[in-house]
Amino acid sequence: MTSGSDDRLQSARYGRADDVVYRRIAGEDFLIVLHAGESKMFSLNKMGLWFWRHLESPVGKAELLSAMLRDYEVEEPVAAHEIDRFLDEMLAKRLAVTVTSPSA
To answer: Can you list the domains of the chain with their CATH numbers?
Structure first.
């Protein structure tokens, strides 16, 4: 059973949360959360903005890894770690969501 759950983790796709908007304000990049009953604002650095742009359409970790290796001079294990770290943080802050496949 472990390999089945590993397969699902590897095939998971991630996208932007519906109630989060991107805004550029006074030369700075921000994500504004409009969850019911609360609003928060997160500033994005260059790498955060890169991730946000790649989450425009549902994307898997393998696609993010390929894009990062193409766009940056970084070793694959470091890139994979950063992708995991970023996605974990974005999911925890409800800025990104796991997208379920219609065929699942």
So the answer is: 12-99 (3.90.930.50)
